[in-house]
Amino acid sequence: MSFKEFNDCKALLDMIDDDEYVMKYKHHLETKFNDMIDWFLKEKLEIYTRPLPAYASDNRKVCLLDLYTAVKREGGHRRITKNNLWAMIAKEIGFDYNEGEYMRLLYAMYLDVLIYYYKYKSTQEKVQEKEEVKTVVDSRQSRS
């Protein structure tokens, strides 16, 4: 899977919805997830200065896929920030509690806009599908 347009990112994020799939193909998905982030940062945001893979303050590699799935599982960025759960997220993905604020920062730097854009595009797609269904129904009703 290569990334040439945002729909490629959307396809990968849709696949990651399935926890069993993620566990089974984690190594491959981790690589693709980083490729997706790299593509999004460069092509959509024109940011070329964020290194991948990401590293914690102690120079340990942070698996952004793990960070993404942990945040998603706990209700998303806003909920975790509101309830001050970043320390728990850090612990859940193998870091000390004191790395919580750093995990929040990494999420904001690498994932926040990507996930916002994904949700926006997904919602836009659903609205478009509803409009298409309505158009078909309206055209059938006008024929009768």
TrEMBL record:
Residues 27-122 form the ARID domain. It comes from the Eukaryota. It holds the Pfam family ARID. Gene3D superfamilies: ARID DNA-binding domain. InterPro entries: ARID_dom, ARID_dom_sf. One of its GO terms (molecular function) is DNA binding. Transmembrane segments: none annotated. PROSITE patterns: ARID. This is Transcription factor & chromatin remodeling ARID family. It comes from Helianthus annuus.
